[in-house]
Amino acid sequence: MVAAVVVAVSCPALAQRAAPSQQQQTVTPAGPQSVSALAERLLPAVVNISTTQKAQRRGQGRVPRPRVPEGSPFEQYFEEFFGDGDRQPRIPGPGSSLGSGFIIDAEEGIIVTNNHVIADADEIVINFHDGSKRTAELVGVDTKTDLAVLKVDPSGKKLVAVPFGDSDQMKIGDWVLAIGNPFGFGGSVSIGIVSAQNRQIGSGPYDDYIQTDAAINRGNSGGPLFNMKGEVIGINTAIVSPSGGSIGIGFAIPSNLAQHVAGQLREFGETRRGWLGVRIQSVTDEIAESLGLERAAGALISGIEKGGPADGGALAAGDVILRFNGKEIRDVRHLSRVVADSPAGEEVTVEILRDGQPMTVTVVLGQLEESEAKTSDSSDDQSGDTEEQLTSVTVLGMEIREINDETRAEFGLSEDVTGVVIAKVEAGSSAAEQGITVGDVIAEVDQQSVSSPGEALDLINDLKNQGRRNAYLLIVSPNGDTRFVNVRIR
Length: 490
Fold this sequence. Notes:
This protein is an alpha+beta fold. The protein has 4 domains: about 35-60 and about 75-150, Thrombin, subunit H (Beta Barrel); about 165-270, Thrombin, subunit H, CATH 2.40.10; about 275-365, Pdz3 Domain, CATH 2.30.42.10; about 390-490, Pdz3 Domain (Roll), CATH 2.30.42.10. Helix content is about 20%, strand content about 30%. The protein contains 12 helices and 27 strands. It has helices at about 10-20, 20-25, 35-40, 75-80, 115-120, 255-270, 285-290, 330-340, 370-380, 405-410, 430-435, 455-465, and strands at about 45-50, 95-105, 110-115, 125, 135-140, 145-150, 175-180, 190-200, 210, 225, 230-240, 250-255, 275, 280, 300-305, 320-325, 325-330, 345-355, 355-365, 365, 390-395, 400, 420-425, 440-445, 450, 470-475, 480-490. The longest helix is centred in the last third of the chain and has 15 residues, at about 370-380. Residues about 1-25, about 55-95 and about 380-390 have low confidence and may be disordered. It is found in: Periplasm. Pfam families: PDZ, PDZ_2, Trypsin_2. Its EC number is 3.4.21.107. It is an enzyme of class 3 (hydrolase).
């Protein structure tokens, strides 16, 4: 019989495996252990928004139903709520839950939400976290950023407000918390991270979205996206989804943009954006090389608006705007946002590159809204001279029509919706597979805005000629939700 012998061996490697180092013992957890305290503090500031409006039928497509496991307790509920594929969609009627919002001023009763949440409403009702309700009045809306400011009478009620944070301080990977009213269930909390920044999804001229994987669904629109300090750093607005449900790609308006717009709506009841009065285009690598720039950045002036702020000679076609009021300009969209955020009437400094030489000039900004009103009046005067355009085309398995008074009434489209409306969808087509239905609106093709069926057809034909296999479409659903879809061309 051999006796077992235990030998004590001094081995640094074994010792390290046996006992974690001091550094390993103090490693910070990868994510928050719990957000329960934060959620409890923030939930009272988030509200559900419902409206009273005339019920109307918005086309003949069906509302996509959430996918639930067969036999689920919710299956019958969803069947009753969304109907089946042969039914007409149930358009929200009086008192229907539409979206979310949040209180930014408890003393004044000020609430921020998305414009598409309250568009065309005859009456707006705010449902608070404690179950109480109050009617709200509309302070102002901005269709370009899809924002709206509401006001309720705060007397006799203790409201809870949340502050705006600095969205520019957020980094990819930072934790965020979304609170809203998905599918009308009431205050719900989801958590995720910042997936990307400065996203352009083609919803307007000032696209600059925060992308997040925090679950955002129908009804979350207008609700806040918080940082871990409980500050609003975004307003949940749109998702990319073939079904209408969250697939982890949601977009929020950055708080720095929203706070500026909300401030103007509160003060003036409208936006008063700065206007430079120049036509601009991107600085490509080829242009940058020809101008002696180290990299493609800034915005190239292609023309000067007659009678605009820059018409005095300070700026000229061919100038490259490198900085605006001290801010380095990344690209064309960045310049548009920075100018719009500047007050009308303010004198600004513009650093440019002209004939290879850097220069600094000053310009007094005009007001964008005033210039747009003049342009609209001019267009109305000349409308009789335009050639007749195509009013309907069939492409990619869809019949698309122009949006006019007749189609707005037929499909229940609000006045601020632009693009082309889908009148028919072929069964089994790629468009049908992507969840596109009658009454949806194509706002963009390949990130280019369309306003007529002819424009959409030309862009899709261009994609065919380029050998592209898919058309990248921005779809606006009848309830105002936006999403991107890829529709097969061949």
